[in-house]
Amino acid sequence: MNLQSNIETYLTLFSIAFSLIGSYLIVRKDWRRYGLLYLLTAISGNILCYIFVRLGFYSFPYRLFSSFAIMPFDVVLTMFPFIVLVGVNYAPKPFLWKIPFYWVLVHIGMLFETLALQYTNLIEYNVKWDFWDSYTWWWLFLIGFEWISTFIIPDSLRNPIDYNSIRYNRIGWFIIHFILIVTIFLGGVYLGFVLFS
Question: Residue 42 and residue 14: Cα distance in Å, rounded?
Fold first, then answer.
């Protein structure tokens, strides 16, 4: 095992541990309901990811259990549900205000995915897949499970951010815009490198 794979091992283990702890803190509010949402997300995420790998859209050169699987089932089993649980639990109640909240989640997720793509062997896009495909599927996945969660998680079990805190001239507004502006700028830089390299 070389230094590069050590870095990827540490990143994988950290993301699994972080996701499990974060998910536990949300799921413990109602094991039955949030547990069901966790399982649905984990199963759906792994099925989608498996299909995309089999279709040759992307691959995972480094996997913690590379001899057993063609994709990192362990990471998808923990990270995807955690991100969905964060969205469902903390998204503001009015749908209009869910959009900027999920926009930030998608951009943060894409930032980490792009960093993993560029600087590790955790993921590799193939000819039929690119940044915008991932971006689109993250939106579909998160908004899809936000809708599904309306049938599983009642409002009484959620802790939505007060949408007034993200209105114009509030601290939340500045945080959202800072994250979006920085990630859009970095996305432009990344696109420039891709187009001109």
Answer: 18
